[in-house]
Amino acid sequence: MSYDKELAAAKKAATLAASLCQAFLFLSFSTFSLMGICSFMHLGCYKGSILETYMISYIYAWFLDMKVQKELLKSDVHSKSDKSPVTVADYGSQALVSFVLERELPTESFSLVAEEDSGDLRKDDAQETLQRITALVNDTLASDGSYTVSSLTTEDVLRAIDSGKSEDGSSGRHWVLDPIDGTKGFVRGDQYAIALALLDDGKVVLGILACPNLPLASIGSGNQHSSHNEVGCLFFAKVGSGTYMQPLDGSSPVKVHVSAIQNPEEASFFESFEAAHSQHDLSSTIAKKLGVKAPPVRIDSQAKYGALSRGDGVIYLRFPHKGYREKIWDHAAGSIVVTEAGGVVSDAGGKPLDFSKGKYLDVDTGIIVTNKKLMPSLLKAVKESVEEKASSL
Ligand SMILES: Nc1ncnc2c1ncn2[C@@H]1O[C@H](COP(=O)(O)O)[C@@H](OP(=O)(O)O)[C@H]1O
Ligand SMILES: [Mg+2]
Ligand SMILES: [Mg+2]
Ligand SMILES: [Mg+2]
Fold first, then answer.
1. Residues noted as catalytic
2. What's domain 4-25+78-256's superfamily in CATH?
3. Does the annotation place 181 within a ligand binding site?
């Protein structure tokens, strides 16, 4: 099975969803830039040329932005029943990916296991939000121009969000989508990813990670905010064919490989930015035991898998706090991106991840990722550290 058609469709869907997300952030920024200009002129500062005024206003607006961007985004950030955040862009991205996959693969039956659903958007008080989502989807489709569709209605968008809705991944083909992975990072202006994978009979056969804020250059030394770096990476992997990375603007892909570092003293490791998502103290004990010298590189989302697949770091450690159950959309795309680049992804007991059991991914204690050479010593350090932590409680 080649999965070439599916890969092309998935790349297109994830790339368009990435544009939607960036447009959402840009619009948020522009709204406040405009407010900045208006406030500046209102304050009676209009004395020089139009250009000068514009430039000074822009700087003024930029300062204003820095202060209020979080406030602005709050109006488009909602809280789900589990208290986790979801934004207008999460829903828009899911609707768009679902729309593009169905358009590009009309002859295939469509089954989608995705993070979001339309439940909250069907409530009376969500109508304004639903309209903003619909406008964002329509604007993205219009600026892409590939599909001759009249504008989608709010009902079309609700239908697209729930289209193919499925929880069963044990047999047949199922798309697995996280429309924005790392929503907290997205809202903060940090890393996030659109993560899309295809399961065939319970196995991940292709995966895409669109990481709009990830520098094209290595973030190995933790320079994810470097202003010299161009950003926007698309990672893609197909079973048996390796992993590639290309700029999100569409330039040529290059094949990537995990780092070959075997000496932990030269290795750096990734973990979640959010301490609530992973036990940082446990990772630190493991790293020390292993002999890792570098401090952790903490970034949001499956951008960690992407960065590891191209050798920016050597290890990714994820140990959710007790009671949390991992979901397949948080790891399906990332895991194939790393394994096709030569890495290994397992739970803390060394078992491969099993994506065939529906939306949950039940793992022993946590998820660990590294290259083949380092995995045995990492597993040993993990086992000892987990036992030590358990006996100290
Ligand atoms: N208490 C918790 N423990 C572990 N993971 C959690 C968590 N709460 C939320 N998450 C998951 O962590 C993901 C982000 O991963 P990371 O910490 O690597 O950035 C979230 O994805 P979403 O942002 O798609 O909801 C969410 O699924
Ligand atoms: Mg979420
Ligand atoms: Mg996620
Ligand atoms: Mg998400």
1. 90, 183
2. Fructose-1,6-Bisphosphatase, subunit A, domain 1 (3.30.540.10)
3. yes
Q: What is the pLDDT of residues 56-78, one digit of tens each?
A: 655 655 655 555 455 556 678 99
Among 87, 181, 282, the mutation site with the greatest number of ligand 1 atoms within 8 A of its Cβ is 181
- Residue 151 CA, ligand 1 centroid: distance in Å: 33
pLDDT at res. 46 = 45
Q: Which ligand is nearest to the CA of 79?
A: 2
The alpha carbon of residue 257 and the mean position of all alpha carbons in its chain are separated, in whole angstroms, by 20
Q: What is the DSSP annotation of 4-53? A: HHHHHHHHHHHHHHHHHHHHHHHHHHHHHHHHHHHHHHHTT---S-HHHH
- Check whether 139 is labelled as a binding-site residue: no
Q: Which long-range contacts (CB under 8 A, 24 or more apart) does 145-150 make?
A: 146/12, 147/103
**Is 183 close to ligand 1, i.e. is its CB under 6 Å away?**
yes
**CA of residue 137 to ligand 4 center, whole Å:** 17
Q: Which of 277, 301, 345, 360 to mutate for ligand 1's pocket (most ligand atoms within 8 Å of CB)? A: 277
State in Å: Cα 177 to ligand 1 middle: 14
Please report, for the chain, the start and end positions of each structural domain, with discontinuous segments joined by +.
4-25+78-256, 264-392
Q: Which two tokens stand for residue 21?
A: 């997300």
Render pLDDT for 280-304 as a digit per residue (tens, 0 to 9): 999 999 999 999 999 999 999 999 9
- Please state the φ and ψ torsions of residue 347, each to the nearest 5 degrees: -85, 180
**Cβ(276) – ligand 1 distance below 6 Å:** yes
Going by their DSSP bridges, the two strands 112-114 and 173-181 should be labelled as parallel
* Residues 106, 111, 117, 119, CA torsion sign: positive
Q: Tens digit of pLDDT for each residue in 343-364? A: 999 999 999 999 999 999 999 9
Task: Output the average pLDDT for the chain.
Answer: 90
Question: What is the CATH code of the structural domain delimited by 264-392?
Answer: 3.40.190.80
Confidence check: pLDDT of 51 > 90:
no
Query: Distance, CA 193 to ligand 4 centroid (Å)?
Result: 9
Average pLDDT over residues 368-383: 98
* Per-residue pLDDT tens over the stretch 313-342: 999 999 999 999 999 999 999 999 999 999
ipTM value for the complex:
0.99
Residue 33 Cβ contacting ligand 1 at under 6 Å: no
Q: How far apart are CA 385 and CA 62, in angstroms?
A: 46
* pLDDT, tens digit (0-9, with 9 covering 90-100), for 205-251: 999 999 999 999 999 865 555 555 799 999 999 999 999 999 999 89
